[in-house]
Amino acid sequence: ATPRLTEDKVKGCIDPRLEGEYPPKGLAKLGAVAALCVQYEAEFRPSMSIVVKALSPLTLSRQTPPAPAAALDS
């Protein structure tokens, strides 16, 4: 038997301070990469550099909140 990463297990890895403010696609990608990292056979697991490359775009995917209206009038 192999361990299964369910959506609930992946959500359990997310920092609760994010309060659900993360893209669902990002959560799916995190789960997919995590699943690769726990492969039974070591040769099927990605190197850490591949993991970093796969997850790095997730740190950039948060949209910047719009500027306050008062700042736009200046």
Automatic annotation (TrEMBL):
Give the coiled coil ranges.
none
Is the keyword Acyltransferase assigned to this protein? no
Asked if the Swiss-Prot or TrEMBL record annotates the protein with the keyword ATP-binding, the reply is yes
Show the PANTHER family listed in the entry. Answer: OS01G0899000 PROTEIN (PTHR47983:SF33), PTO-INTERACTING PROTEIN 1-LIKE (PTHR47983)
Q: Which UniProt keywords apply?
A: ATP-binding, Kinase, Nucleotide-binding, Phosphoprotein, Transferase
Annotated GO MF terms:
ATP binding; kinase activity
Extract the signal peptide range.
Answer: none
Superkingdom assignment? Eukaryota
Per its record, how is this protein called by name? Serine-threonine/tyrosine-protein kinase catalytic domain-containing protein
